[in-house]
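General statements about sequence and structure are easier to judge against a single worked case. When preparing material for the folding task, we compiled for one chain both its residues and its backbone structure tokens. The amino acid sequence and the backbone structure tokens for this protein are reproduced below:
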Amino acid sequence: MVARVLRELEVPGNVIHEHIETARAKTQASARATVVPRRTLGSHRALADLKIESVLVREGSPAAGRTARELDLRHRTGALLVAIQRDGVLVENPDPSDPLGVGDVVYLVGSKDAVASATRELSVPPAA
């Protein structure tokens, strides 16, 4: 319960863990692992301005067949590609050298403008 209260107060996770371990050492030993509840991005006030968006890679998309490294979205738009859903499986922390395929869903995080810019770049077919 203490960990949940500290999380609500936005105390960093490593500090919460240290406090719990110190309290356990002073009061009673426990074989139980320390579990600090994780918060979602949206529940962090400091991250409230960040947006999360998903983009489906379609046939003709500039992203189809290209790697995250080649797309260089972070440098060009400010958006960060944080995950890919491929064949129903979420790939967290995707390898930037793996090519994106048609049907992949790309998850972007960044400011409103950065995410909008990256979404436009991934959604517009290349000029013929």
The helical segments are 2-8, 13-27, 68-71, 73-77, 112-123. The chain has a mean pLDDT of 84.
